[in-house]
Each structure stands twice: as C-alpha cells, then as structure tokens.
Amino acid sequence: MGLLVEGQWKDQWYDTESTGGKFVRESAGFRDWVTPNPEARFAAEAGRYHLYVSLACPWAHRTLILRKLKGLEEVVDVSIVDPYMGEWGWSFSDAPGAIPDRLYGFDHLFELYQKAASGYTGRVTTPTLWDRKHETIVSNESADIVRMFNSAFDGLAAHPERDYYPEPLRHDIDAINERVYHDVNNGVYKAGFATTQEAYEEAFETLFATLDWLDSRLAEQRYLAGNRVTEADWRLFVTLVRFDPVYVGHFKCNLRRIADYPHLSGYLRELYQMPGIADTTNFDHIKQHYYRSHGTINPTGIVPVGPALDLYAPHGREAVGL
Ligand SMILES: N[C@@H](CCC(=O)N[C@@H](CS)C(=O)NCC(=O)O)C(=O)O
C-alpha cells in the first residue's frame, strides 16, 4: 500500500493521524471523459480504451457491471490485478482470475501511472481507464467511468437501448447516490479504517441508519429509483455483495448482516441473479484482497472460510411496488 510522490513510489498506509482517526478518501487524479464526438481528444472508438481493474474493488466492480450490461466487452478490454495489494500497491500476476497487464507487461499498476504522467503525485487506484492512442489515463474515477460506459459508447455497444441514468430520474438518482456513497460505499471503509473508537462508532451508526432507510425504501419499491434498475442500484449492489463476506467481520460492520434485512437481502439476490452479474463477482478475489492486504487490521492474513451465502435462493421481489 502506498502512493506516488513526484513520480516515485512511497510505501505508506493511509494517514489518519491528522484527521482524528478518520479515514478520508482522496479525490481521483485523472478526470477526463470519453465522448461520442469523433473530433474530441478522447473519442469513443472500439479497441482504443483499456480498463485496469481489481475484482476485489467495489469501485472497479461498478464499471465492470456497466461494461457487461451495456455489452461493451468487445469494445473495451480489461487487465485484472492480483487480489493482494502489498508494499508495491496493485500488481499483475497470473493468479487464478487475474489477467496480467495486456498493454505493457508491467509488474505494478504504478508503472502505468508513471507512464501517463512522469511527475504524478497521488494514489494509484482501480479502476483506471487507459487510452491506447494518447498513451495516458483518461480517468481513475469510477463514478465517471460508469457514466461514460452508460452512454459514450452507444454507437458501439451491443445494448445501446439500456440506459441506467435516464433523464427523468437523474435528480433522484443523484440524491440517492450522494447518501449511499458517503454512508454506505465509503461508510464501510470509514468504519474499517478508523483508528479511534469515536471515528469507528460514528461511521458505524451512520452506516446502519442508512441501511435501515434503504431497507424500508425497498419495502415499497422494487429498485432504488422506482420500478427500473438504474446506476444507483449497481452502485449500492457492489457494497451489499461484499458486506456479509467481508465488511461484517473485517471492517467490524456487525450490527446486522444484509441477510438479516428483510428487503435488502432479496434485493441483493435479485440483482445478483440478473444475467451476467454473477460473472463480474469474484468472491475469492474479494476475500483474499481485504483479509490479506490490510495488515494493520488483520495481521495474520488469515482468510475466513465462511460465511455460506445463498445468493441463488428465490428473491421474491416480483410483486414489490406493483
Ligand atoms: N474514487 C475512486 C476510488 C478508487 C479506489 O480507492 N480504489 C481502491 C481499491 S478498492 C484502490 O485502488 N486503492 C489503492 C490506494 O488507495 O492506494 C473511484 O471510485 O474510482
């Protein structure tokens, strides 16, 4: 675990001392956009962009889901890092489920960032969207990559008719995303990476208050923004699917499991059972990454064997909201 400082790799853990024990996520360093406009610097083209992901990472997972649902697998290819993140950060290997760097054969993801910007200072994160033409990083912000995949490649996608950010629902989706991001997606990290009791408890309480709110919302409506699946659902899904296997134990988010929530549990199963989604979810990478990579939280690196999950059980959501 570390970061680049003026282009040099420094091995260091998150600094929580200056923030009273709280984990504060940094903003992404590259925020350009692929657009359908052929004149643009980053124009949508088949075979031009490459996505670097970790299958463990919830932020990368949401981009893989949009790529799958939009039918972009032939348009944007991927490399998949090793699940273990050690002193050199993310690295490439031929571990099961990993795909070594297809473009440059690099050993570590930070080498890609050095290639994009030689004096770069910042974290080296997944997902990272790479442009073969300009040999640089377009974006390492998953929320933006999700939106690009939703619409920028529609001229090339197998499913241009699918829209996960529909115009009339944007206001609601943005509002839901905002709360889910702070309290749930990042909330589990705030609980897990806290280094004071107070910081942990604050994150814990907010997290479960928001899960309770989501559960009651899902009692009345089938999906977060109404009767159709939107990006708000996929952004929540990636945290829910990691919750019982990892966040309950490793991040001490243990008031309740998702399996204990009457509506969130069926909702999670329904999303998981949608065509293609299980293929994007790799529980081995998920568990290996968290339990082995965070030495301050789990010094032995032992990966728990359980829990037993039954995500293929009937979800029973057909009549909700009718
Ligand atoms: N804002 C980023 C966050 C991405 C992120 O933090 N990814 C994690 C993996 S789950 C990472 O690569 N962490 C490495 C680090 O922070 O050094 C996004 O949503 O794309």
TrEMBL record:
Which top-rank group of organisms is this from?
A: Bacteria
Instruction: Fetch the InterPro entries from UniProt.
Output: Glutathione-S-Trfase_C-like (IPR010987), Glutathione-S-Trfase_C_sf (IPR036282), Glutathione_S-Trfase (IPR040079), Glutathione_S-Trfase_N (IPR004045), GST_Omega-like_C (IPR047047), GST_Omega/GSH (IPR016639), Thioredoxin-like_sf (IPR036249)
**Which of UniProt's keywords are assigned here?**
Transferase
- Residue span(s) of domain GST C-terminal: 166-293
Q: Does the keyword Plastid apply?
A: no
Which one of the record's GO molecular function terms can you name? transferase activity
CDD domains for this protein: GST_C_Omega_like
UniProt name for this protein: Glutathione transferase
Source organism (scientific name): Salinisphaera dokdonensis CL-ES53
